Amino acid sequence: MIEADVDACEAYGECVAAAPGLFAINDENFVEVLDASPPEDQKAAAERAVWACPVHALSLSQD
Question: What is the pLDDT of residues 38-60, one digit of tens each?
């Protein structure tokens, strides 16, 4: 499961670049998780997005 800490998010957009189907930056400039439980074929992209976040606003846990 993907979780986002919107208080930590600074809208760098690295998550969107890594996994555009899983993340977006909303109108308030915070990360929005589009699919908190990504399908198996998107898990690698989710992991890349979590690692790409420069402020560590994302976490990924096993369901």
Answer: 999 999 999 999 999 999 999 99
What is the spatial distance between Cα 9 and Cα 52, in angstroms, rounded to a whole number?
A: 12
DSSP code per residue over the chain: -EEE-TTT-----HHHHH-TTTEEE-TTS-EEES-SS--GGGHHHHHHHHHH-TT--EEE---
Partners of residue 58 on adjacent β-strands: 4
Domain boundaries, the chain: 2-60
Per the listing, tokens 């979780």 go with: 3
How many angstroms from the chain centroid is the CA of residue 60?
Answer: 9
Q: What is the pTM of this model?
A: 0.90
Tell the CATH topology of 2-60.
Alpha-Beta Plaits (3.30.70)
